[in-house]
Recover the amino acids of this structure.
């Protein structure tokens, strides 16, 4: 009898142990399988509800994590599409048939007037400008390259508008090897020329400056052009802060959106202006070494 009782107890213990092992090992194995599927990019992986025990808590946490990852992936894909659309449109803006046509007309006029030295410099500037614009498909360039693009663009425009435009480009030496999104400054310079200097109808100056600011980088494009009334400035600030892309002021909004997609919302543009006194556009970026 005693032997039978002991055998019965042992059998019950074995069955209980087996049930406990199954209640742990099966859900754990299922969770491991779902983790494997997730690691391979399958965001449909979900763990079944296992009650309110520790395994159930793990499964609930896993499911919440997968849902959050799914949302983040969708946002990343949307941001990537937006960034690609912005970069494509910006490239289209810079390979502008009007700019190219006007520059070629300028070259012809200079050649006919016999100013061969200026012809050579304008052709070289146009070549340097498009070298950076295309830059073998790179989205990021060094500050030195971006400034070379700016100088080339401004030189061409100064030859065209010699009666109203002067420019200055100044950068601290320790900023030249830092990185910047390609064609970040050029739209700001173009905006200063066409909305500041040309509408002012007087001797205008565009100043581009780059300096370190703590752990960041500050880039400023300033002009002494027509400036803006307070209401106009406020509308522009609202549009820039909201990242709304529209036909007017496309350059500023494009830069703001691209910068914040790349670096975060703590970076971007600030605009200051006064009617008849000019406009300052300041761009704040992280100070990151180029190629790092």
């Amino acid at each position: 009898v005693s032997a039978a009782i002991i055998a019965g107890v042992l059998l019950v213990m074995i069955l209980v142990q087996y049930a406990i092992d199954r209640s742990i090992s099966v859900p754990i194995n299922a969770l491991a399988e779902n983790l494997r599927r997730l690691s391979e990019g399958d965001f449909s992986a979900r763990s079944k509800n296992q009650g309110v025990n520790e395994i159930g808590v793990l499964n609930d946490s896993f499911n919440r994590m997968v849902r959050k990852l799914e949302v983040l992936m969708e946002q990343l894909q949307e941001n990537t599409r937006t960034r690609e659309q912005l970069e494509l449109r910006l490239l289209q803006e810079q390979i502008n048939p009007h700019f190219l046509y006007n520059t070629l007309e300028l070259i012809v006029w200079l050649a006919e007037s016999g100013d061969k030295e200026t012809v050579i410099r304008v052709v070289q500037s146009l070549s340097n400008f498009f070298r950076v614009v295309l830059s073998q498909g790179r989205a990021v360039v060094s500050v030195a390259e971006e400034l070379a693009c700016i100088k080339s663009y401004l030189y061409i425009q100064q030859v065209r508008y010699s009666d109203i435009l002067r420019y200055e480009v100044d950068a601290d030496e320790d900023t030249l090897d830092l990185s910047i999104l390609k064609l970040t400054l050029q739209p700001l310079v173009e905006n200063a020329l066409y909305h500041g200097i040309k509408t002012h109808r007087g001797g205008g100056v565009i100043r581009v400056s780059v300096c370190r600011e703590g752990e960041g980088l500050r880039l400023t494009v300033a002009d002494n052009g027509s400036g803006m009334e307070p209401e106009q400035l406020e509308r522009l600030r609202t549009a820039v802060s909201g990242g709304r892309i529209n036909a007017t002021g496309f350059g500023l909004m494009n830069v703001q959106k691209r910068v914040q997609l790349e670096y975060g919302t703590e970076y971007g543009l600030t605009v200051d202006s006064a009617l008849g006194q000019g406009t300052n556009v300041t761009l704040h970026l992280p100070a990151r070494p180029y190629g790092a």
